[in-house]
Specification:
75 residues; mainly alpha; 0% strand
Length: 75
């Protein structure tokens, strides 16, 4: 399976967190639409079908990138 670039995954996670916080303050159609879009993109990018699985997969992927960089294995 192809994997998205770690910076793309990082940006998706940050955008998701920002939109969730914004939704808690202002639950409007625009925020819900953008949150749905980023949720869909997270699922497609991680090859998962649920938000929880997508978030877990994205975080695991980023943790793996950090681990490889720390061990000197990253190219």
């Amino acid at each position: 399976m192809l994997r998205p670039h770690p910076s793309f995954v990082h940006d998706l996670l940050e955008t998701h967190a920002t939109l969730r916080a914004r939704q808690a303050q202002e639950d409007c159609a625009e925020v819900r639409r953008r949150l749905d879009d980023v949720t869909y993109t997270l699922c497609v990018s991680t090859g998962t079908r649920t938000l929880d699985a997508a978030l877990a997969s994205a975080r695991a992927q980023l943790a793996g990138v950090v681990s490889q960089a720390d061990s000197g294995l990253a190219a």
